[in-house]
Amino acid sequence: AERLEVKKRKEEMQRKEMFLEDQYYKTNELLNRLDLGLPKSDSCQIANRGPESTAWTRSRIYKQALREDENRRLEEMKREQRRKAELMEFKQKQEEEARMRAHQNEQRSYLQSLCIFCCILRVNNAFLDRLQNKTQPNSINQPGYSGSLDYLSNGAWVS
């Protein structure tokens, strides 16, 4: 009976040992798969990769590496957004400057046209004054007529 009892204990111990070995191999297989999935990163240094490293520690390190990777991606996206915003602001400034230049050119062109129109009016008035003076011989000193067109030679035709 004692031998039978010892034999049962041995069998029980062997089953437990086989179960523990099986668990050990499964755990190592899982950890190896986790190691393969770890991102290659300088900031993620695992100090202890030996069998004494627990699954919890390795899992925590893996999750930390994933968080660091995610944070790096977020920072990169923020930098990209800032760069795009700066570029958009620069383009808006350029467009505003172009609109201002176009507006100034329009005003300048309008003023030049107005100046030319005024000169033409003066010439026409002078011409009409001369015509009127020819038809009325006694009124040579009509207002607005100087007898010559010298006032147009001071650059009034040029803007």
Q: Which series of helices and strands comes N to C?
A: HH
Amount of helix:
over 70%
Tally of strands: 0
User: What is the CA-atom radius of gyration, in angstroms?
Assistant: 49 Å
Major pleated sheet: none
Poorly predicted regions are: 42-48
- Helix/strand/pairing category: mainly alpha
Oligomer: single chain
Number of domains: 1
> How much of the polypeptide forms β-strand, as a percent range?
under 5%
Mean pLDDT: 79
- Helices, by number, come to 2
Q: Per the principal axes of the C-alpha atoms, what is the gross shape?
A: rod-shaped
Terminal-residue CA separation: 128 Å
InterPro entries: EPSTI1 (IPR026185)
Keywords: Coiled coil
Protein name: Epithelial-stromal interaction protein 1
Organism: Balearica regulorum gibbericeps (East African grey crowned-crane)
